[in-house]
Fold each of these.
Amino acid sequence: MDADQKGREVCMMSIPVNGLTATRRTGLALPSDLSLAEWSHLGQQIHVIADSSAWWLGDWLVFGQEHYPGHYRRTVEQTSLDYQTLRNYAWVARKFSPGRRWGKLSFQHHAEVAAVPEAEQDAWLTQAEEGGWSRNELRRRMRVQRQSPDVSVESALVQVSVVAERRIRWQHAAEIAGLGLADWIVQMLDEAADDFDPPISGLAAAPRALEV
């Protein structure tokens, strides 16, 4: 068996997870009788692994840079890993020693505040954890603070009239996302706005009230 064949075999190898699913390099097989609770728990596990992998890869590259300065770049090039992405991960990992990483917040939360001084990092992440802010909410709040550091931003009331069918669809989507309808709409609008307004390193948003 040549190297390419071995690679294909690895990609197709099924690995049982919790006796309920089978993972492979290129997919996830789920049994048809998987309960909602089991499906939800599995999603949370996958999220934790995906989020943790950014920290792991960042720490891995930092170790290589420190211990094998003349060889680590070649090792990275021999893998399928994107070097620039790894450098970004390593940059964030260097900004936060393991003892300063908020376990309840994502790697992306930390990346958002990595460019500001350490005291500000801690302040923003503490607020994000206590307030249950998403990465986008943290980004929005930091942006407002950066753009208007001496201005108190008040809430704005936005009223939107929609047909009943559309509201029901939105409500259903919000429930799936685990959000209130107004919060879900704000999140969707923020994500759409980000396509036209690239993220800035360091940010925050003011509270808004939304009636639908």
Amino acid sequence: MEGEAAYGFIVNVDAQGSGLLSDTEKPEMRRRLYDVTGTAFEQAGIRPPRLYQEDRGDGILGVLAPDVPPVRVVGEWVENLHQNLRETNRDLRKPLRLRVGLHIGRVTADAFGRSGRAVDLACRLCDCGTAKAILRAAADAPLVVAASDRVHEDFVLPGGRWVDPDHYRRHDVDLKEGRTTAWFMVPGRSEPPEPYTEQHPEPTADGPGGPPKQSGPPKQSGPPEQSGPRTDHPPQPSAAVGSAGTAGTAGDAPTAGTAGDVATAGAPGDAATAGTADDAATAATAGDAPTAGSAAAGDDVATGDRVVQTVHQHGNGRIVVAGNVDSIDLSDGGGR
């Protein structure tokens, strides 16, 4: 009776990709849509007035009377629809591919059609992103079925003619009314493929989202840039006992020998640091002050041991002496 709600099994069918069809292609799509679904209902023994159908442009809303066994829809009707689609798509360049939403609940009839939250849910499941993504991922399949949690529990899990519960997979889907649980099945497959949405694109050989995007030319590897003058001079070889350490040009680090050795400074401004036995004295950069005889220069000075050195001065270089000096012999033949 009009205006009164009654329980009914709701079947909503929608064509995938219908928005990409031209105006001349849509009438043929609709003809095939009504043919494959109507023939499937006939094959399952479901006819008016036990079957109400309402046109939705690129889809059909169907409501079955309470005395129609829902398992007949979940099993026979779905399998017949699958086979009818395979037959009609055999020679089509653009095959007809359908999404089906199944739910059961209270439906209100009026002069304009059928309404109710149960109708809304069946339509939402049919049109949800997960159903669309699964059908896109199943490129060779013409049909995906999305059953509500209630339909799955009451009519899928018990099994029946052409009903295999193991072929369904659960997904939580976000609808306008909120998140809900749905069960998806692709006829002809033991399980549906994983859905890949725009947020989680289909994987490629380069990874889930494809190859990484380059924001600019690849950065060339090389030594780090120096923000100031370099101070990491390479270490200089140490002088052996009794040998003379000779400084190079300005800025080079001269090395001094051990006690009794002669360290000759380089050009003016070079710094020489004298050490003790087995220590290599290395000069700092040009302009640094030389350190001689300090506690850091060696243990001989720190303990008060006296070191006597004889230094011969040549040229205009400075005399560098380590430790305490008892005498300096400046006799170089020049009187300096």
